[in-house]
Amino acid sequence: MLVAPWAAGCAGVGFIGTTASSFLRHIRESEDPNVRYAAITKLSNPNCYDDESQKAEAVGLLVAALEGGEESVATQAAICRTLGALDRPEALTALRKAALAEDPIVRAEACRALGAIGTAEDATILARVMTADTSRDCRVAAIEALGDLEEVDPRIGLTLVEGMRNPDPAIRAASYQALKDVTGEDFGFEIDRWEELARSRLGDESPR
Predict the structure, then answer these.
(1) Is the Cα dihedral 162, 166, 171, 177 positive or negative?
(2) 164, 179 contact by CB (below 8 A)
(3) Which of the chain's termini has less CB crowding within 10 Å, N or C?
(4) Helix axes 122-132, 104-117, angle to 10 degrees
C-alpha cells in the first residue's frame, strides 16, 4: 500500500510522542503504515535524541527498514530523507543501494541524502545517476547532490560542464548551480570558461 506523503499528518495518526524513544517504538511496534511514516519523519529532528548512541540506534533501525523492502515507496523515501538529516556514515551503504532502486522517488531522495552525508566516493554514483537515469527528477537530484558534497573528485567538474550542454533547461540550471557550489566561481552560462576551469583542476586531486 502506498502511503502518500501527506498521510502522516492526517487525524488518524494521533499523538505519537515527542522523543526518539517513542518514535523508535512506533516504528518497531505499529502495524499502521501511516504511524510508522510519521515516526520516521519525526526522527529527522536532531533535537529529539538523548545522545549519539540513540541516533545510531535510529540509523540502524531505519537502514533495516529500508533494506527490508516491505515499506511503501513514500516511506522508503522518508527513510532516505531522515538518514540524510541524521548525517551518520553507517547509512551510506544503504543509501548507495537506494540511489539505484527501482522507484524514482526513492532514487531521488537517496541521491539528496548522499549529497548531505556522502564522501568523494559517492560522486561516482551521483554522476552515473546524472547521466544515465531515466527520470528527470532523479537526474536533477543527483546534480544538486554533487554540488552539496563536501568532497568532490575534480573530474566531476567536466561531467557538470556536459550537464550545462544538455537540452533540458532543468538539467542545465542544476549543473550550473552545482558548478558554482563545487568551484566557488561563477562564469554564468559561459560553458567554455567552465570547461577551461574544470580541465585546469584535473591535476589537483585535493578535495575542496
Answers:
(1) positive
(2) yes
(3) N
(4) 150
Residues 6+ apart with CB under 8 A from 31: none
Report the alpha-carbon distance of residue 88 to residue 140 in Å, rounded: 24
Residues 112, 168: Cα–Cα separation, whole Å: 20
pTM: 0.87
90 CB-near residues (< 8 Å, 6+ apart): 56, 59, 60, 63
**What is the 8-class DSSP label of residue 49?**
-
Per-residue model confidence as pLDDT tens digits over 109-157: 999 999 999 998 899 999 999 999 999 999 999 999 999 998 878 889 9
| Cβ pair 89, 97 in contact under 8 A | no
Ramachandran bin of 101, using left for φ above 0, alpha for ψ from -120 to 50, beta for the remaining angles: beta
CA dihedral of 109, 110, 112, 115, whole degrees rounded to 10: 170
For 51: left if phi > 0, alpha if psi spans -120 to 50, otherwise beta; the answer is: beta
Give the three-class secondary structure for 35: helix
- The answer to whether 187 and 180 are in contact (CB under 8 A) is no
